[in-house]
Amino acid sequence: MSESSPEPQARRSWYARLGTDWWATIVAGAITVLAVTNLLPRIPW
């Protein structure tokens, strides 16, 4: 029985190397840019 070793860092894709915190920052930044440029739909409250 062979043991499976963890995947080396060099083989991981670029989006897998970004952490969850960075993805949250990127998504929040994109939403902010859309809001500032008035490209988000208005919510009728």
Identify low-pLDDT runs. Answer: none
Q: What's the main sheet like?
A: none
Alpha-carbon distance between the two ends: 62 Å
Number of helices in the DSSP assignment = 2
Helix/strand order:
HH
Shape: rod-shaped
Which structural class fits the helix and strand makeup?
mainly alpha
Give the averaged pLDDT, no decimals. Answer: 81
- Helix % is 40-55%
Percentage of residues in DSSP E strands: under 5%
Rg (CA only): 19 Å
DSSP summary, beta strand count: 0
Describe this structure in words.
With 45 residues, the protein is mainly alpha-helical. The longest helix is centred in the middle third of the chain and has 17 residues. The radius of gyration is 19 Å and the shape is rod-shaped.
Q: Could you give the topology of this structure?
A:
Layout: H1 14-17, H2 20-36
